[in-house]
């Protein structure tokens, strides 16, 4: 491999006013979304759907795109590799490297993540194919007794081991300890759990050791569970999120790239905008506070692409929506989103999916 400056890659991914497109769904996960939209889950359908994003004009809004392993090797309809489509637009290609969730023995439905055994050899192949950063997802449930300390420590250790291997293979790691949105927990409980999880992750990153200046963090914003009786305003979320990040994340981390985790497209943008507005007012933080959204950058695109294929909307409508959603969130990453929001989904319409936890068909 050539001499790679990982800190420079991390800096490119965290340019203010840009975020990361998470388009790394496994064939099973993306398949459920396609089938729900009335489409077949075939390799060519998956390829054609993702072409909407990788050939769109997103370079001014998106710094990196996380791909699934199948997608990393695919081409656009004109034969141009997706990796080249992205790099020609100034977008760095990344790759999801975990192999999905598995149940922790003896736990109350908690999970760890598999994939460490073959990670080093796979990362070397991904780098040769053009990937320049990676992502590994852990998922933690919240209830009165969860997450357990055992689950927190197990997942933190795996995330740190992954990050160390990725950096050894010249890839910038994105560390994703997702607090699942499912449940009726309060805003305060969300903050408490997030703080425990993030602090444990950082401690394990130090122990490996992992270069924090070449590592990105992908947490959930601090908010009540989706079934909580008392909702939180965007300002409440911003205050709780920044307080928790400041207690947990050292300034050496260059970017906190929030996940959307089942929020609607509009909520994701409004919450991100509120976080950046508050951070700008307080002027305390050194990290980029941006996004690594999946569903919140895709739901309206899939809806339009489905009807575009039947001729009910003009060709290019889905690609235009991909560009518009990227611009909205890029503005929010600077605290400058003013609306209207381009989403055609409902503000109240959650993007929660009951197959985002452990299941038997992860591939």
What is the topology?
Elements: H1 6-13, E1 19-23, H2 27-36, H3 43-54, E2 62-67, H4 69-72, H5 82-87, E3 92-96, E4 101-103, E5 111-113, H6 119-129, E6 133-140, H7 149-168, E7 172-179, H8 187-207, E8 216-217, H9 234-248, E9 255-258, H10 265-282, E10 288-293, H11 299-308, H12 317-332
Parallel strand pairs: 1-2, 1-10, 2-3, 3-6, 6-7, 7-8, 8-9, 9-10
Antiparallel strand pairs: 4-5
Helix pairs in contact: 7-8, 8-9, 9-10, 10-12, 11-12
Note the gap between the termini: 29 Å
Quick one: how many beta strands? 10
On the 0-100 scale, what is the average pLDDT? 95
| CATH arch. level architecture | Alpha-Beta Barrel
CATH C-level: Alpha Beta
How would you describe this protein?
The protein has 363 residues and is α/β, with parallel strands linked by helices. It starts with 5 loop residues before the first helix and ends in a 31-residue tail after the last helix. It is globular. Strand 7, helix 8 and strand 8 form a beta-alpha-beta unit. 51% of the residues are buried. The strands form two sheets. An eight-stranded parallel β-barrel has the order 1-2-3-6-7-8-9-10, surrounded by six helices. Strands 4-5 form a two-stranded antiparallel sheet. The protein has a single domain, classed as Alpha-Beta Barrel (TIM Barrel), CATH 3.20.20. It contains twelve helices and ten strands. 42% of the residues lie in helices and 14% in strands.
Q: Which characteristics define this entry?
A:
363 residues; alpha/beta; two-stranded antiparallel ribbon
């Amino acid at each position: 491999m050539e001499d790679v400056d990982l800190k420079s890659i991390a800096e490119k991914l965290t340019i203010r006013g840009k975020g990361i497109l998470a388009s790394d769904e496994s064939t099973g996960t993306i398949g459920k979304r396609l089938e729900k939209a009335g489409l077949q889950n075939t390799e060519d359908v998956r390829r054609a759907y993702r072409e909407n994003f990788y050939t769109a004009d997103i370079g001014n809004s998106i710094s990196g795109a996380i791909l699934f392993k199948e997608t990393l090797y695919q081409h656009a309809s004109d034969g141009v590799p997706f990796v080249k489509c992205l790099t020609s637009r100034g977008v760095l290609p990344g790759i999801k490297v975990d192999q999905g969730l598995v149940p922790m023995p003896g736990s109350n439905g908690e999970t760890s993540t598999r994939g460490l055994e073959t990670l080093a050899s796979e990362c070397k192949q991904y780098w040769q194919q053009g990937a320049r950063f990676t992502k590994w997802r852990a998922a933690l449930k919240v209830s009165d007794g969860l997450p357990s300390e055992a689950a927190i420590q197990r997942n933190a250790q795996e995330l740190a081991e992954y990050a160390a291997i990725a950096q050894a293979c010249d890839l910038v790691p994105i560390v994703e300890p997702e607090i699942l949105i499912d449940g009726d927990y309060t805003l305060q409980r969300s903050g408490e759990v997030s703080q425990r999880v993030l602090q444990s992750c950082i401690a394990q990153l130090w122990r490996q050791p992992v270069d924090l200046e070449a590592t990105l963090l992908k947490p959930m914003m601090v908010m009540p569970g989706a079934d909580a009786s008392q909702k939180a305003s965007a300002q409440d979320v911003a205050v709780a999120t920044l307080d928790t990040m400041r207690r947990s994340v050292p300034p050496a981390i260059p970017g906190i790239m929030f996940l959307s985790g089942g929020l609607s497209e509009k909520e994701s943008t409004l919450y991100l905008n509120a976080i950046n507005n508050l951070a700008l007012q307080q002027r305390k933080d050194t990290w980029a506070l941006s996004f690594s959204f999946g569903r919140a950058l895709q739901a309206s695109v899939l809806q339009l692409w489905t009807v575009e294929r039947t001729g009910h909307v003009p060709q290019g409508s889905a690609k235009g929506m991909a560009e518009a959603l990227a611009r909205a969130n890029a503005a929010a990453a600077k605290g400058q989103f003013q609306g209207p929001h381009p989403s055609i989904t409902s503000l109240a319409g959650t993007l929660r999916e009951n197959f985002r936890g452990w299941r038997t068909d992860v591939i």
